[in-house]
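Per reviewer request, we include the raw input and output of the structure prediction for the construct analysed in the revised manuscript.
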Amino acid sequence: MTCTVEGCDSKAYKRQMCNAHYIRWRRHGDPSIQKHARYAAGQLCAVNDCGRPVLAKGFCKPHYERNAKYGDPLAGRPSTQVPQAVPRPRVPWPERFWQYVDKTDACWLWMGSLTKSATGEGYGQVRLDGRMQVAHRVSYEMARGAIPDGLTLDHLCRVRRCVNPDHLEAVTPRENWSRGISPMVAFSKQTHCKRGHPLSGDNVTMANGGKSRRCKACKRLAYWRKKEAL
């Protein structure tokens, strides 16, 4: 089958046209256009208000590519008129802090970001003055002023995310630790060992560099049991 363009005897390639006429049809929309007589110098894109020089099919390069891809020179691109975002009103600092607080009948729970904790739920945290700070400390300082040097805040309610100033007390780090519920705290408050021997006076020896107590009576029992088993 030969090319259907008048005066062409070449073999048909696509759409009943030879390769050369098919390419001219793809580029210019007219297979009979002369190879060297395409567009007049200075001819502009057929799209209104474009103003770019013609590349092919009466369109500039961007409109030609959109027309080839979507079948419409104006398709495939969002509007250049981007609506301006309406700036949100700046919320004053105290209101911005308390909007993250759920004031229940007991605790004031922080609903924002929390610190990571290996034992479960962490403390509330908030960005202030360009850095992250602990939320319950910020709440205490807003209500009662600066925390005295050398003191830390103890949660009387034992709820870490609580920011109620009435549930916070400034105490020494040692006092804060002694009020905890960890196994080490429970052991430090223990007055007798598991066999009933007193953990005081001459019956106590210190271990682990003075950090833990050992019962001498239990130690002697373990010694004689081991000796009798030999």
